[in-house]
Design a protein that fits this description.
The strands form two sheets. A two-stranded antiparallel sheet has the order 1-2. 9% of the residues are buried. Helices cover 40% and strands 11% of the residues. Helix 2 packs across helix 5. The chain contains five helices and four strands, in the order H-H-H-H-E-E-H-E-E. It has one domain: Orthogonal Bundle (Arc Repressor Mutant, subunit A). Strand 1 and strand 2 form a beta hairpin. The protein is an alpha+beta fold. InterPro entries: HTH_HxlR (IPR002577), WH-like_DNA-bd_sf (IPR036388), WH_DNA-bd_sf (IPR036390).
Length: 156
């Protein structure tokens, strides 16, 4: 049986993938984050077809990740991250760290990130919201939450 709607699974990873799980969406979010927030800018940067870009932008707007804001009288729109979208950028930053560590090659990372608070080039590190200690695969137990369902996606 082929599953086509991850949004109905009792799993936060699956539900997130339902919103951004195909390759174009994270790249669109990246572009909007760095300031390429108009249709033509995104299309030129990604080399994506107008049809696919329109579909992906509509999907991200429908899910409350991006918001359309008019900028011309035609009307034309630019896209801005919502609060929900800004939190997804945090996820993208974790992906950047993984990609920089495992895929950047000898040339090093293609982009660096300067932290506003300290002014230093830095990277994202996952930490516990309660004690501040780093959180990695071996540092957590997965427990069923109030919305858990059956199967490995619910909890172990």
């Amino acid at each position: 049986m082929q599953r086509t709607n991850f949004g109905e699974m009792a799993c936060s990873i699956a539900r997130t993938l339902d919103v951004i799980g195909e390759p174009w969406s994270p790249l669109i979010l990246r572009d909007v984050f760095v300031g390429a927030n108009r249709f033509e800018q995104i299309q030129a940067d990604l080399g994506i077809s107008r049809k696919v870009l329109t579909e992906r932008l509509n999907h991200l707007v429908e899910h409350g990740v991006l918001e359309r804001q008019p900028y011309d009288q035609r009307p034309r729109y630019e896209y801005v991250l919502t609060g929900k979208g800004a939190e997804l950028v945090d996820l993208l930053m974790v992906m950047v760290g993984w990609g920089d560590r495992w895929l950047a090659g000898e040339a090093g990372p293609p982009v660096l990130y300067r932290h506003h608070a300290c002014g230093e080039i830095s990277s994202v590190e996952l930490r516990c919201a309660h004690c501040g200690e780093p959180m990695h695969e071996g540092d957590v137990d997965v427990l069923p939450g109030p919305g858990a369902g059956p199967g490995p996606g619910g909890a172990r």
